[in-house]
Amino acid sequence: MLCSSTRIILRKNQILGPISAFLLLTNQFSNNSKQTHLRFSHRSSVSLFSKPIRTEFSRPLLFDFRSVRAMASQSQTESVHNFIVKDAKGNDVDLSKYKGKVLLIVNVASQCGLTNSNYTELNQVYEKYKDQGLEILAFPCNQFGAQEPGSNEQILEFACTRFKAEFPIFDKVDVNGNNAAPLYKFLKSSKGGIFGDSIKWNFSKFLVDKDGNVIDRYAPTTSPLSIEKDVKKALGIA
Hints:
Blueprint lengths: L4 E4 L9 H11 L6 E6 L3 E4 L4 E4 L5 E4 H10 L9 E3 L5 E3 L7 E7 L6 H15 L4 E7 L11 H11 L19 H9 L14 E4 L5 E5 L9 H8 L3
Parallel strand pairs: 1-2, 8-9
Antiparallel strand pairs: 2-5, 3-4, 6-7, 8-10, 10-11
Helix pairs in contact: 1-2
Organism: Quercus lobata
Family: Belongs to the glutathione peroxidase family.
Protein name: Glutathione peroxidase
């Protein structure tokens, strides 16, 4: 049976990183214990993070396991910036290049009933806010009604010639199913839809903040101009 207080022997002035401290403590105490008093065998200086904590013999130190778990988990949290994708010409693009930018990520199609309105409004939003830190990342997808059947070259020509799109067009991807692009798996897990996580149709949209965190998700029928207020807020100009 575990006690509410336990002696841990540490070398004088020993420094523990957050993960090491967490493992040491969880080996000593019950996971069901919310708070535990630690007693040290002699005067020592123990650093769990950046500031040392001075302790003396028989003087208890109150420790909260939940705080350590939260900090350890947060340090491993993914963001959009962790991913590498392919552009339309097959080159690797490290999305960390967009750190400090607000992103609007959209799965596009050339033969959809939503194509004209979305490409037109995406261009308008991009032209208005690109100099203030907005980037639109377009990922062609042929999973919805086979409405993006062309090659990457044909898709680029369509977007750039017909709509004068200046934002980047990436490699065609799957957004649902076992072969879904890792980026889209992350986007969906970060912001699920009303009827489940799967992408429902062409021109679903994800708004991503400057740190790579998914802020919001919008349905295919949500027009780009209607989310302008959210874009401005993410840019810090609302």
